[in-house]
Amino acid sequence: MELSAKQMKFLSETIANKPVTEIPGIGVLLGHRFTTLGYPLASDVLKQFLVMDKNEEIFVTWMQNSVRANENQSRQCAQCLQAYCKNFVVKHSFGNGSCIILE
Question: Is residue 34 within 8 Å of 20, Cβ to Cβ?
Answer without folding.
Answer: yes
